[in-house]
């Protein structure tokens, strides 16, 4: 844990970075660590696009950012809905000239066994397929040196990717689906990094684990008594806060230390080695192609695999 309740940008040591003139899109920034990171980047001077489904929470985040002098706006899209994500990408393209930082953060741990309209597991769809779609739709809107940042999880370490189980109907635990979707986040981030690099682009793509944050998504998904226990952990100094989680996002968005770094995985503002499964390039290429197939789109950056 990074001790003390300092602001994320201070925890990350980027409080003196000037992000004015930069446009940042943080998905899942109505709540949790996404909101903390969005506001932190607003304090650094960035213009921020807030995303989520909750209109009231989105407007309150925009108000907070405007109070800091940020030119902020809210876009709403349900990540279970492919059309909504496409419309969100079109709305963003119209609203801004360029995106300097795209943070793929929306997500969480969702109900057991639920399938989306595409017939795939809910965790896999919200946590992986939608950010894949949004990012590939926005490729032409990214600044030439943009940073794409994906919120993964340490949970990736306890799973191997079984795409057939995520795609075919059948019993599947929410925890297994969640961990696989977070492994998919690292695969996606690394495959994007490789293809952009092969294309000669200076856009970078990195992923990170934000920490274990009681009172946030994990404890909300637990049964009542365990949830209350989870809430108690808020006061335990060995767990992380949303500010801690947001610190690594702010670090990857703003720090000069990571300039040019791509295809890397971070935790607590430091480069880490992800699990062996997360370094499997064949699995990354396969996931990329199958994600495009599932969404019924042409394989993005197909010439640069
Ligand atoms: N908390 C942890 O301990 C932990 C650990 C490892 C990784 N993570 C990852 O960190 C990220 C943020 O988690 P958090 O803890 O900050 O969670 P959170 O407090 O529950 O916030 C989740 C955000 O995602 C958005 N979201 C959720 N479902 C959505 C949907 N169907 N469509 C569009 N937006 C949706 C929410 O917005 P609306 O409610 O407005 O839709 C909210 O802004 C997630 O990717 C999570 O997997 C968290």
TrEMBL record:
Q: Which keywords fit this entry according to its UniProt record?
A: Oxidoreductase
Listed SUPFAM superfamilies: NAD(P)-binding Rossmann-fold domains
Any GO MF annotation of the entry: oxidoreductase activity
Q: Name one Pfam family in it.
A: adh_short
Q: Is Nuclease among this UniProt entry's keywords? A: no
Question: Domain of life, per the record?
Answer: Archaea
- Can you say what this protein is called? NAD(P)-dependent dehydrogenase, short-chain alcohol dehydrogenase family
What organism, scientifically named, is this protein from? Halorientalis regularis
